[in-house]
Recover the amino acids of this structure.
């Protein structure tokens, strides 16, 4: 992958569903969850710089963690916004002009180098690429009264993850266009008519949102560490 590649790690959430715990700093195998997430990108040769976006309350803790971990690629730690898309936009502004942007959730500590590099390869070919996995469950659309309106064709449904990888000019256009709410970065490009390529993510690449998610992350992490 030629050109400057910057990762934006979106970690400005409130941990509202973690029962009072700050999920970013809950320890997984003796290290804060956020350290595992950032560490994968720090160790990935394809990444040149990392911009870490956190809440105002976590700014000092994030700087202290970066110092302790000795992260050389973390060039900026900035305050996020009210919504995820506001936080990513702040990270994009901090990153400045580059060639490729990799956007990843801070609460996905089980990302791998392979997922990052696959996303970059797909983005090089298509301009925009998003990790995703086929859904396992049947998905129904409900009415306001919780009666079923319709059942979707599961064979066409994918659960979107991060990393999401973009050519800089495309994602910059997406984030500087007034296109309303977006629950992920790719939505902004889709609304502009830009095609986004899905590539196979991993069912282990979970987002830690609840204590149950954290317990599953621990299980996966320790299984990976076992020989064989």
């Amino acid at each position: 992958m030629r050109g400057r590649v910057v990762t934006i790690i979106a970690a400005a959430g409130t941990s509202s569903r973690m029962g009072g715990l700050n999920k970013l700093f809950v320890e997984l195998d003796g290290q804060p969850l956020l350290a595992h997430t950032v560490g994968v990108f720090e160790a990935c040769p394809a990444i040149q710089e990392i911009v870490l976006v956190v809440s105002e309350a976590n700014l000092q803790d994030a700087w202290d963690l970066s110092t302790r971990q000795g992260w050389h690629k973390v060039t900026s730690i900035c305050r996020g916004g009210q919504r995820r898309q506001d936080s990513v936009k702040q990270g994009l502004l901090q990153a400045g002009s580059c060639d490729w942007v990799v956007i990843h959730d801070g609460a996905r500590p089980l990302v791998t180098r392979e997922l990052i590099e696959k996303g970059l390869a797909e983005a090089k070919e298509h301009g925009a690429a998003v990790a995703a996995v086929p859904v396992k469950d049947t998905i129904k659309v409900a009415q306001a009264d919780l009666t079923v309106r319709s059942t979707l064709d599961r064979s066409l449904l994918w659960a979107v993850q991060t990393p999401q990888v973009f050519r800089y000019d495309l994602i910059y256009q997406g984030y500087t266009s007034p296109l309303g709410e977006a629950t992920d970065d790719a939505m902004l490009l889709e609304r502009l008519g830009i095609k986004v390529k899905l590539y196979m993510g991993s069912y282990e690449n979970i987002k830690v949102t609840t204590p149950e998610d954290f317990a599953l992350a621990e299980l996966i992490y320790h299984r990976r560490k076992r020989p064989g």
In short: The chain has one domain: 5-225.
